[in-house]
Amino acid sequence: MDVYPFIIHLGRLEVTGYGIMMMVGFLMGGWLIGLELKRQGLREDYAAEIVIAAVIGGVIGAKLWYVALTRDMDALLSRGGLVWYGGLIGGSLAVWLNGWRLRVPTRWTAHVVAPALAAAYALGRVGCFMVNDDYGLPTGLPWGMRFRLGLPPSTAENLHALFGIPIPPGVDPNTVLAVHPTQLYEVAAMTVAFMVLWKLRKAAWGTGALFGVYLMLAGLERFLVEFVRAKDDRFVGPFTIAQVMSVLLIIIGTLVWVRLRGRSAQDPGPYLAGRQPAAPSNPSTAG
After folding, report:
1. Taking the mean position of all CA atoms in its chain, how far away is CA 259?
2. SS3 144
3. Cβ distance 88 to 61 under 8 Å?
């Protein structure tokens, strides 16, 4: 099956499927966070605070991680070149700092964002598929896809030169090969993860334990899909940098879940509980 990028041209403006799905992912994440805050009887405005911080920190983190991996400084000003782990770290840091500013307990922030992160990631991978990026190894399976205009095109020459994938003798370097649609594998896996997390959010665990489950599911999904991704960043033997990070996520997630699942619910604090205004004004000076 041949697949081509989804691009909308509006005069000189080019809108890609990735950009559209990134926006949809952030909006969906904010909506889901708002639903959980409403269910808990907490301040729904915090959903917008989280999304804004996540957008800024996530994009900066994803871009810096990509530049650190590739040493391509020109990527700082390009629309492409975003790495999910960098986005997770940068977005998490920005959301934590904003929560600290508002005096929202970290455990509460972690709880409300866990299902939303899985859903937003699944939507983001739809965007990767729509721009024909982040595909997998060559395959003869019926659902293999040829990305003729991919980033880069899935030609025999590109797969060998860029990702070190051996190509059988006699294959024309310009042949476009069918590859695993790993973007769709991740969409399916993280959609299931979201459904699990959405159901577990009502479990009688300690505040924040749900985030540990998210880290375990996200790490496991990425660790497995890396085996069929077209990659050339092996870090430890056959394992990629992403797989090493995935193992760390699984370990951290397990520790978070074990540590917090038996605890009682944490007080959400004055801002989240609505006991103080969202934007306190400066006290007036007596004349």
Report:
1. 25
2. coil
3. yes
